[in-house]
Amino acid sequence: MYFKGRLRTKELFLIRSDEKFFVKTGNNNTRKSFSDNFRTDYIEDLVYGNFYYTDLPEDCKGNPDSKEVMRFLRTF
Fold first, then answer.
1. Taking a C-beta distance cutoff of 8 angstroms, is the pair 5, 61 a contact?
2. What's the whole-model pTM score?
């Protein structure tokens, strides 16, 4: 749903709250668990939190390309 532009970035974090997330600070990536602090420190201040993936600038989209991820997911 996220890659098809039917789920906002903030919503993706909220529905996947049972998983750990990588948070980039400067040059470091840290694994964080979802918590009230995580919500306050990261989700509430997401620059593109209210954007759909399809609306994100190209330099904000992760690798691999979303088409590659969707191709992979369809194999299941």
1. no
2. 0.54
